[in-house]
Amino acid sequence: LKVCAVRSVGEGHPYTFPTRLEFFTWRGTLIKTEMVKKYGLPMKECFIYGEDLEYALRFNKKGFYCYWIPASKCIEKRLEGKEYYKAIRRTVKIYSAPWQLYYAFRNQFYIFRKYKEHQRVLRLILYGVKAALVILTFDRRAGLNKIRAIIEGLADGMRGRLGKRIKYVPGNTSNN
Fold first, then answer.
1. Using an 8 Å Cβ cutoff, are 32 and 6 in contact?
2. For the stretch 135-154, what's the b/e string if a residue is b when 16 or more beta carbons lie within 10 angstroms of its beta carbon?
3. How far is CA 60 from CA 52, 56, 115, 131, 134, in A?
4. Which of 110, 136, 139, 166 is most buried, taking the most CB atoms under 10 A from its CB?
């Protein structure tokens, strides 16, 4: 069994046995020191969204995986940062701020392309279209900055333009 990390589960998790994860997030994840020494640190250019995704894919490509550990518990206390839209009998969760959308779409596009996850690139683009349509439907003109952030994020991810962008620094009111 090639284990690189383990992750705690939250309340109400359906599994009662360790389960392999395709990806992991930082919250509740413990990574073996030897893995960090051997494969390096997370990509600093992704710094806010997706660096955990890239790290998981990097380990997966080497044959190492993360596992849920049901006996451990992770209690998360943070603000959600997402808006909930009711559309066609479904709830769609979309990041609230343009900077969140920009970095999430940009970094995921770049990472999926880097690791040749072509189906995931396509699904991300389709999700971007869906998110833009939902935002346009419910937020109308007030949501144009969010839609612009999605488009610019996808374009910069495709070009490999990483790092911080002044326009999308958290708290920058010129793009909110």
1. no
2. beeebeeebebbbbbbebbb
3. 12, 6, 10, 29, 33
4. 110
Least confident of 14-18, 56-60, 98-102: 14-18
Burial 48-81 (b: 16+ CB within 10 A, else e): ebbbbbbbbbbbbeeebbbbbbeeeeeeeeeeee
pLDDT of residue 1: 60
Tens digits of residue pLDDT in 112-131 = 999 999 999 999 999 999 99
Q: How far is 151 from 162, CA to CA, in rounded Å?
A: 15
Quickly list DSSP for 113-135. Answer: HHTT-HHHHHHHHHHHHHHHHHH
What's this model's pTM, rounded to 2 decimal places?
0.87
User: At residue 30, what are phi and psi to the nearest 5 degrees?
Assistant: -115, 125
Max CA separation in the chain (angstroms): 52
How many residues comprise the chain? 176
Burial of 39 (0-12, 13-18, 19+ CB in 10 A): middle
Residue 34, both tokens: 């030897």
